Amino acid sequence: MSACAQSDREDSGSGDSGGDSAATDATFTFGAAGAPEVFDPFYASDGETFRVTRQMFEGLVEVKPGSAEIGPGLAEKWEPSEDGKTWTFTLREGVKFTDGEEFNAEAVCANFERMADQNETAQAGPAEYWAYSMEGFGDDSLYRSCKATDAKTVELKISRATSKFPAMLSLSAFAMQSPKALESGDANNVKKQGEGFAYPKNAQEPVGTGPYTLEKYDTANSTVTLKRNDEYWGEKAKNAEIVFKIIPDESTRRQELEAGSINGYDLPNPVDWKGLEDSGNTVEVRPAFNILYVGLNPEKNTKLKDLKVRQALSMAVDRENLVTSQLPEGAVAASQFMPDTVKGYNSELQPMKKDVEGAKKLLKEAGAEGMELTFAYPSEVTRPYMPNPQKIHEAIRRDFEAVGIKVKVVTKPWNGGYLDGVDNGQFDAWLLGWTGDYDSADNFIGTFFGNLKSNDFHTSATDFGSDLSKELKEADQTVDEAERTTMYEELNKKIAEEYIPGLPISHSPPALVVGEGVEGLTASPLTAEQFDTVTVEGGK
User: Fold this and answer.
1) What is the pLDDT of residue 282?
2) Which residue of 160, 280, 284, 341 has the lowest C-beta tally within 10 Å?
3) CB neighbour list of residue 83: distance below 8 Å, 6 or more residues apart
């Protein structure tokens, strides 16, 4: 917590870097699995949205390319106070937002005050990254204040020491936006609209500091076009444009890559990896830094409050068969809600084995024989931890039915009601997952279960919810790393054996593919690729 970071990137101050001569008029066309939900990253929660906003916005700290480590972003360096509650950030000079406004300490504080000041609708829904990371709003929040001590220096105060600071500031949701654009766009006026939300003007007109800006979102042709920011403070983007072509079907994405109408896409079907490489494409396989899980909602289906019912559901799932039949080579069954590369992983835990008779016995003891379960999965999406949601859902559904559970199947488009349905507690159980934002136990289990007021698993409806929330907070604020790691190991055991708020299923190594003539792409274990370094041979 006492370490400092210093920039190793050349600050050009005006975008006139020596590398600009490599910039071309080419277009990099990427096949996206889904549409962006919104262009305000603060209200986003899914990878398809962040893939787009990441090219336009930057945070105080950024994840280093190709790793899960943090490094300088819009802040060149940072230093904590002795008690870990005050963090001083030294900002880059010569940075402007794409509307011409200066990036400075006052702009940083305007952003943090905006994030902290959310209406009830936003607090209960789309401001979930703040709710998870900052542990709520108002008096409950980890965030306390922001002060501009001079134009280049910011003091951020938090309520207690935490293992996730300042790494959490690398989250795309906490990227810096133009205060002028936020004000003119009525940024915090989020409203409920049917099963989803209506977002203010700024969410359609993003203004960041990044290497690209939004040119057009063509819903009729399902494309998002970004253009190069020629006033960017650092090295200019290599390509003049990025086009995200929204192609929900993975096989169609492959066909378009082979036809040359796109230059790359994420999450190719594992059975296609060799064929893609044999055709001259480049397949980058990332490390498995994720978790696929079945979420459970005891608030909606009160039978799920009974530990025996949750144990039975976990026993019903044949994880090993699912891994070998539905997931890529290198995938493994999960014993807990984090991968084994994160400190705090409990190596003594083993994935729950399938036990049909044991599950039936527990359901009978709980008086839940023949119980009904509304079990949802998303359409129009492919996720790093979930290459084929429908087939994975079908496999788990059959496992549930084999122990006598009556499953009602629900499916909705990923950004067309599914994520909102999870946020609003519409399902008894659902498929979802998480790719880590940075290397931290808190970013996994703290995100899932740490906040009683904003918790997709609705642990507030269980007898263990407040205990789990308290225990996670105690672990997170423990400064000694060895002691903190031990606490997380013990917590993972409790979650797996005593609490069972959901069902950890698997960890999968996701891949990314680009066609011939594409160079400069660095694959990220966080699936957080930057496209400004990409070149496409042959121009447009």
Assistant:
1) 97
2) 280
3) 161
